[in-house]
Design a protein that fits this description.
6 strands, alpha/beta, elongated, about 15% strand
Length: about 170
């Protein structure tokens, strides 16, 4: 079983790799409809592909004690101090590989609209850039620089403490 976390491009290299695996009877578990569609576009028989979304184990993730489940201003937690997020802020989070097809630019465009209405909103981008994503990283940096205060968007990079980071977020 091949577990596909990304969208494959319709290039000869990807087509050859997928055909080789499928010819050996390999089945593919794709984490999204888009990943599944990219395999089908490469000619993979749909009976060989199943979609299994990534998820969180609710037994491992716990909101910070005393946290209101709605989007509210809350006090600073330990993780928030790392990137110097203000003590009182509404914190929005996106988590995933920084690639154009993941829509981080859409998150930042929406964030600019949110900031106009909520002056205490801050935004964390968690995840590492995809290989060869220098141009996209530059685009994201430009978008972040357009905010009224340059500390509204923080790129945290790849993290191992995802449960703790999620517990800090308001949305």
């Amino acid at each position: 079983v091949l577990h596909l976390h990304d969208i494959l491009q319709p290039r000869a290299k990807e087509r050859a790799m997928v055909r080789s695996l499928i010819s050996r009877g390999v089945r593919v578990a794709a984490v999204s409809d888009a990943a599944r569609a990219s395999l089908l576009a490469l000619g993979v028989d749909e009976t060989k592909v199943i979609r299994i979304h990534n998820g969180l184990d609710p037994g491992q993730w716990r909101p910070r004690p005393g946290r209101d489940q709605s989007i509210v201003v809350k006090e600073q937690g330990e993780i928030r101090r790392e990137p110097s997020t203000p003590a009182v802020a509404v914190l929005f989070l996106t988590l995933g590989q920084q690639a154009p097809w993941k829509g981080i630019h859409v998150f930042l465009a929406a964030a600019r609209r949110v900031v106009k209405r909520h002056r205490n909103a801050h935004f964390w981008v968690v995840g590492s850039p995809y290989r060869g994503g220098v141009a996209y990283q530059a685009r994201l940096a430009r978008l972040a620089a357009e905010f009224p205060a340059d500390d509204r968007v923080t790129f945290l990079g790849r993290r191992q403490d995802i449960n703790a980071v999620l517990a800090e977020a308001d949305a």
